[in-house]
Amino acid sequence: MIWSKQETLSREEMESLQLERLKETVFRVYEKVAPYRRKMDEAGIRPEDIKSLADLKKLPFVTKQDLRDNYPFGLFAVPKDELLRIHASSGTTGKPTVVGYTKGDMDVWTECVSRIACAGGAKPTDVAQICFGYGMFTGALGLHYGLENIGATIVPSSTGNSEKQLMYMKDFETSLLVATPSYALRLAEVARELGIDPKTDLKVKIGLVGSELLTDAMRDEMHKYWGEDMLITSNYGMSELMGPGVSGECEHLCGMHINEDFFIPEIINPETGEVLPEGEWGELVITCIKKEALPLIRYRTRDITRLHYEPCACGRTTCRMENLSGRSDDMLKIRGVNVFPSQIEEVVLSVEGLGPHYEIVVERDGYSDKLTIRVELANATDSFKELEAIEKNIKNKLRVVLGLDAKIKLESPNTLARFEGKAKRVRDLRKG
Amino acid sequence: MTVKQLSVFIENRRGRLGEVLKVLKDNNVNILSMSLADTTEYGLLRLIVNNPEHGRDVLLDAGFSSMLTEVLIIKVPHVAGSLQRILTLIAENEIDIEYMYGLSVETTDASIVVKTNALDLACKVLKSSHIDTMTPEEIASL
Lengths: 432, 142
Known about the structure:
By secondary structure, chain A is an alpha/beta fold. Chain A has helices at 11-32, 34-43, 64-69, 103-119, 138-150, 162-171, 181-193, 198-201, 216-226, 341-350, 384-402; strands at residues 85-88, 98-101, 127-130, 153-155, 176-179, 206-209, 231-238, 243-249, 256-258, 263-268, 282-288, 299-305, 307-308, 320-321, 326-327, 332-334, 337-339, 354-365, 368-377, 407-411, 426-428. Chain A has two domains: 1-313, Rossmann fold, CATH 3.40.50.12780; 332-428, 2-Layer Sandwich (GMP Synthetase, Chain A, domain 3), CATH 3.30.300. Chain A contains eleven helices and 21 strands. The radius of gyration of chain A is 22 Å and the shape is globular. Chain B is 34% helix and 37% strand. Chain B folds into two domains: 2-69, VC0802-like, CATH 3.30.2130; 72-141, VC0802-like, CATH 3.30.2130.
């Protein structure tokens, strides 16, 4: 089901709508947001210089640091009285980043999430269990209102207490699951411990996963436990931009459709800031063109992806962004090689005999870096030959994918930490 | 006749072996013999216990990677050359031994626990040469 006709506009219609909204946003931000006005003045750009979408690249970037520097409301374009809601990011390093919503912003947010939920197969008849933490995090409430808007029945179970989650799932006949991919796997694991087979004992047929990368290997792993017929789509967003609802996959799984009438995407070279042509990998930069409270212009997401503009078989004509290959923030430099944790995840999940959980440990060893991957054995064995074969297999695959030698640490099942929110699978113990 | 050995994967981490033994103790599983083979990172603990199924279940519940493996427990008379005679017989029949360790119980015979790549054949060969193996019932009653 396609929720809005805005998702099927022709390229010309979309671009003219985007230009109109971009111009309006730039004028408003220049007038209302002092820190951004200073940035534009320094760059020698006036709002009237934006005459076409191609002029977008003349505007200065906004980064997470700008949000921190202007904590809490310095980048807001409306007085605080007009806010209906405030959310904040976790702020693991330093101050959290604070975001706000007007009535208009809330409506747009709900609209955007309804679209991506429908693209992911949601229907008014679904019972949607939302296993994201409710609170300052945008994920849960974003999905909540978007799914409610299409008429689904919401089970706001939040995170934690997996046994109770599964009881609700069974007794309420939950058909749609909202969770991080790692929590979806954790739930399947707890289900089996309780003697519940998610494939036959539960009715979950749709998975809307987000807030964490969904690699193909992770999707395959989810299918293994939840059933081949489950439609598992990933969706994308971040609180700075709105929360979930920026983009989401449809049933063709060929990239996440961006709600382009609200967000203009660009791909840049993260080192030079130069805009890259269609189809090239780089950092995603998003300009919000219909936000009232916090209209960020050219926000650097730090996420690495690429864009495709050809219309999709589903009927949507919106630009698609590929599933993220990583965050430029998450990128590890090990012995001079750029490594994304997602590459390691692909390898771990492709090796027979291992569970889906892993931990990446990077240490300093003299003048070199030492990479250790901790993995869990899926099946018991009495044979060193088998254990050695597993180690050798994963080592060889890592060498091919990364060009690096890693030490493999096999562990008993259930040894590694499990996560209900975003998984933290990297421990970088190097100093500086 | 084969018996079931309890095999447990353990990481080389201080106190890990003790954790396995505590689970077995708490569940009243008695160890009759054991072997611990290790690499630098992990080891395989192999146990002959009085109740292997129960032992495996309680270890799995406690989060250990454990399983049952069929092995032979061959009685070896306390006479010089008897072990050599048995091993020669096994080798002559082109059976490979994967690992073995002793089982010490206070009887007139010694015993060895043997894992081979061809258990059925090994049983047959031993039987036709009148070499005794222990039964699960004998083990359970020790």
